[in-house]
Amino acid sequence: MYLKTLTLRGFKSFASATTLQFEPGVTCVVGPNGSGKSNVVDALAWVMGEQGAKTLRGGKMEDVIFAGTAGRAPLGRAEVSLTIDNGDGALPIDFAEVTISRTLFRNGGSEYAINGSPCRLLDVQELLSDTGMGRQMHVIVGQGQLDAILRATPEERRGFIEEAAGVLKHRRRKEKALRKLDSMAAHLTRLQDLTAEVR
Ligand code: ATP
Q1: Residue 41 CA, closest ligand 1 atom number
Q2: Is 76 annotated as belonging to a binding site?
Q3: Cβ contacts of residue 98 below 8 Å, gap of 6+?
Q4: How many Å apart are CA 150 and CA 170, to the nearest integer?
Q5: What's the pLDDT tens digit per position in 138-155?
Q6: Whose alpha carbon is nearest atom 14 of ligand 1?
Q7: Residues contacting ligand 1 via CB (< 6 Å)
Q8: What is the ipTM of this complex?
């Protein structure tokens, strides 16, 4: 599995449709300060479902839409599409290529699609959840984040490793199941009391 193409249209500084093509292996994006290198990384996080405007270096989600320049009017929507090569079947979907798209309209409307079919954010998150590209994206290491990992306490570091290994998902499910068991035990006690009273 590897990222094949990323297309931005109306996303941050990318007003016109811009497609970046990647090959397997390492890709470096170089350019002068303020030319949009970090915006490309923001677009990757955004199309994979990032919900935090701050993580995307904005104040509100609408800030990802091209805000206009001296020579160009603001746009009404931002669109990003990411095509992933799924030749090795790492994504649990029966396609050799998977395109995830996200669109945000200035009026607040938002859409996701997988291979052109409209879907929910949850579908995108579930598709990516076992690839390490899911909700808590440790695949994207922002400026300063490496420092935070190096300074983390052993417990915090264990959290990072568990998330990367996919253990955290099961821990959360276990906690939820235990809470349900507790609540069922309380219901059972109440039922036994009632039965005793009726007898
Ligand atoms: P550096 O090397 O300094 O980190 P960079 O290449 O990573 O820079 P970015 O931070 O990706 O640059 O891009 C910053 C540019 O994107 C700024 O010029 C900013 O005005 C522009 N920009 C950000 N959001 C928008 C938006 N919504 N509309 C138009 N331009 C935007």
Answers
A1: 11
A2: no
A3: 83, 84, 86, 91, 114, 115, 127
A4: 25
A5: 678 877 778 888 899 999
A6: 34
A7: 12-13, 31, 33-39, 63, 65-67
A8: 0.97
